[in-house]
Amino acid sequence: MDKIKLNGMMFYGYHGLFPEENKLGQRFTVDLELMLDLSSSGKTDNMDDSIDYGQAYEVAQAVVEGEAYNLVEAVAETLAEEMFRAFSILEAIKITIDKPGPPIPGYYQSVAVEIERERPYGLS
């Protein structure tokens, strides 16, 4: 399947279980793989046959910088739902949300959640 990839988008959100995460917030890095048939847009050179990268960025920004969630898993699931609503030609999506330096003991760069979803039946 063809893919459009948006890599390393950075947003500031207030997601987490701990009060300091909800109050202070932190950076989140988001990677998207948007899966769809790009043969039409490749032939027509027409944006109407593809997904506008800027609009996809705006959807991601609205979710990650919007309502606070306890779990990054919930952020990813909401983002998948919003992407399917925004783009009727989107067939499947892979989302990775990276949370650098969460407030848990140990030494590591980050934790991340990755989900893959297909267009829900009946959602067009």
From TrEMBL:
Pathway in which this enzyme or protein is active: Cofactor biosynthesis; tetrahydrofolate biosynthesis; 2-amino-4-hydroxy-6-hydroxymethyl-7,8-dihydropteridine diphosphate from 7,8-dihydroneopterin triphosphate: step 3/4
Record Gene3D superfamilies: 3.30.1130.10
Protein origin, superkingdom: Bacteria
Top-tier EC class: lyase
SUPFAM superfamilies (UniProt xref): Tetrahydrobiopterin biosynthesis enzymes-like (SSF55620)
Reactions that this protein is recorded to catalyse: 7,8-dihydroneopterin = 6-hydroxymethyl-7,8-dihydropterin + glycolaldehyde
Record domain Dihydroneopterin aldolase/epimerase: where: 4-117
Lyase in keyword set: yes
The protein's Enzyme Commission number: 4.1.2.25
Keywords: Folate biosynthesis, Lyase
One protein family per Pfam: FolB
Segment forming the signal sequence: none
GO molecular function: dihydroneopterin aldolase activity
InterPro entries: Dihydroneopterin_aldolase, FolB_dom, GTP-CH-I_C/QueF
Keyword Lyase: yes
Family as reported in the entry's similarity comment: Belongs to the DHNA family.
Entry function: Catalyzes the conversion of 7,8-dihydroneopterin to 6-hydroxymethyl-7,8-dihydropterin.
Name recorded for this polypeptide: 7,8-dihydroneopterin aldolase
Organism: Alkalibacillus salilacus
